[in-house]
Design a protein that fits this description.
eight-stranded mixed beta sheet; 29% helix
Length: 378
């Protein structure tokens, strides 16, 4: 590989700009071929030093809070879309100043804030999130259409008489899925809410589209977009997060100690709970360069973090050689849902953040210290 991971501080997130651009080119091609607009969902990837690069390809950002909306406005300054399950009274006016689209989760929220939208004089396009009560997401933790979900308005609770002033519908039903799941969802949306789409200007397909995955069916995605455009003359938005930086980042760490208790164990300066929390929450087993499945190679180790949490375990991996203190390990696909979710539990330091490109090599964007840990406490 072109990256010399030994030159990075440890631990360190590294984003490969070349791989990021490959993803962006795929997304931009979809925009160009269909006329849809694709937004970066900042909840997955908020490395704002790369926002000027991302803004060359995408139409803007999708935000879930005032802070994300401000970040998108300040660092990319293209379209800023905001959705939240509920807005805070004290933050709403500031959101209006940075948002282009504002999506409400319920009609009660819309009624509460619609006069403030009108009186603000801001050219904000408002919409309502709907719940089509259809999803193919298996894990309940990530299924926004699960029974009793707080996300969006179901058909039973839809209020046609309250649509004045609303210009779009938003739905989100996917999680790391292909376009067949989107096609099935659109059938449910069309059947339940099609009569209301006739009076709308736009529709937002939400996130969870794994558009840059090698096996993703781009042709089906284009057909899905065209279906809504042709039938209802709508501007279509998509807001993928993972697809933007999928497989474009790494997390570099170092073996601190090795020991044995029923099996070989290695303690790293990387923590699942602090630095890669989706490993525990999703859960999933990240790919490790040079590492195999347990028993696949000669030496199998359970890799764990330096915290006092007993379950701070990244997983079991096998290697061609024995591990020793000082060995570097590199985990893949660590740009998404890592920097945005990491924490300083136990006072464990945050990894540095770096970018790599063929021209400049490895460049450290940010490093962290005790001050970052202390500043979050009081």
């Amino acid at each position: 590989m072109a990256i010399d991971f030994r030159q990075a501080p440890s631990p360190c997130y590294i984003v490969d700009e070349g791989l990021l651009i490959k993803n962006l080119e795929i997304l931009y091609a979809v925009e160009r071929q269909t006329g849809c607009k694709i937004l970066l969902a900042q909840k997955a990837f908020s490395m704002f030093s790369l926002y000027p690069l991302i803004g060359r390809y995408l139409s803007g950002v999708a935000s879930s809070s005032l802070h994300e909306a401000r970040l998108g406005r300040e660092e990319m300054d293209k379209e800023v879309h905001v959705y939240s399950p509920a807005y805070r009274e004290s933050e709403f006016d500031e959101i209006l100043h940075v948002a282009d689209h504002l999506v409400f989760n319920s009609f009660s929220q819309w009624r509460r804030f619609r006069d403030r939208v009108k009186q603000s004089g801001q050219p904000v396009s408002c919409g309502i999130r709907v719940n089509p009560e259809y999803s193919e997401v298996a894990a309940g933790l990530y299924n926004p259409c699960a029974p009793c979900s707080r996300m969006g308005v179901t058909l039973k609770n839809f209020e046609p008489d309250a649509l004045e002033g609303l210009e779009g519908l938003h739905f989100h039903t996917l999680c790391e899925q292909n376009s067949d799941a989107l096609e099935h969802t659109l059938s449910a949306v069309d059947e339940k809410f099609g009569r209301y789409l006739k009076q709308m200007k736009w529709i937002n397909f939400g996130g969870g589209h794994h558009i840059t995955r090698p096996d993703y069916d781009l042709s089906r995605l284009r057909r899905c977009i065209s279906f809504m455009q042709d039938k209802y003359d709508l501007q279509v938005y998509l807001e993928p997060g993972e697809a933007v930086a999928l497989n474009a980042g790494y997390l570099v760490g170092t073996v601190l100690d090795v020991m044995h208790n029923g099996m070989d164990l290695a303690i790293l300066d990387l923590s699942a709970t602090c630095h890669m929390p989706d490993v525990l929450e999703m859960p999933y087993r990240p790919v490790l360069i040079g590492g195999g499945k347990p028993g696949e190679k000669s030496f199998t180790y359970r890799l764990g973090g330096p915290t006092c949490l007993a379950g701070d375990v990244i997983g079991d991996y096998s290697f061609d050689h024995r591990l020793h203190p000082g060995d570097r390990l590199v985990f893949c696909d660590m740009a998404i849902y890592s920097m945005v979710k990491n924490n300083t539990f136990n006072g464990v330091g945050l990894p540095s953040i770096a970018v790599f490109n063929e021209t400049d090599g490895l460049r450290i964007v940010k490093s962290f210290s005790y001050k970052d840990f202390k500043s979050r406490l009081s």
